[in-house]
Amino acid sequence: MNGLFQFATMKELLLGEGQSLSHLIETWWPIVTTAVAIAWLFIWLARSYLSNLWLRWAVAMIVGSAMLIPIGKLSLSGWLLALVGPLSGFSLVLLLASIHLGSSELLPKSSWLIVCVLCILRLLDTLGFIPFALLNWAFIDQATSMSLALTTLALVLLTLSIAVRRPFLGFCALIPALLWRLDAGPFQNLWNAYTDLALMVASVVALTRRSTKGKP
Q1: Which of 77, 91, 133, 160 meets the CB 3.0–4.6 Å disulfide criterion with 87?
Q2: Which domain holds residue 9?
Q3: Quick check: 182 and 176 in contact, CB under 8 A?
Q4: Is 74 helix (H, G, I), strand (E, B) or coil?
Q5: What is the per-residue pLDDT across 63-88, written as a single tens digit (0 to 9) for each?
Q6: What total number of domains does the chain contain?
């Protein structure tokens, strides 16, 4: 049994007949990730009062659930979606890790730098400022051996840079890639699973804050 057959079998088991699970994920992903982002923002603003791990998770669950309460035809999360925008799978992993770790530094500088470069490259590709189709490299049906090698290299570098400080978080960083490979997530290509506008802003802020840390 080769790797491709194993992936196809796992995909069939996960999605089932008619890919109803995939459709459900695509429908709810933006709303749920927005609710998680608002919950994280609430915890970050009240971080001085939420030093306890279980208290942070309890508050996150309450705030996140409140964001999903329907008001008219949309939930609060749905109304705020236009401001936050759909988040990548990697962003969701980082948000949940940040809630769990509290005020601890989330990623080393090298990881934020890789994230920032990937986000900038994707933005330049979207605007047509680079001579190669970066986004097309990461579509499953359009991937070539070269594009798969380069995208895999970027993912390995990112994962290893995270795992140096936080091994479990480095392992969790592979989950969006696995969902993309199984076609079990809302990601059109691999870059959508690891980059978004909010993550680019967060990486720039993290790099700037750390570079100025300790300066008068």
Answers
A1: 91
A2: 3-212
A3: no
A4: strand
A5: 988 888 777 666 666 666 666 667 89
A6: 1
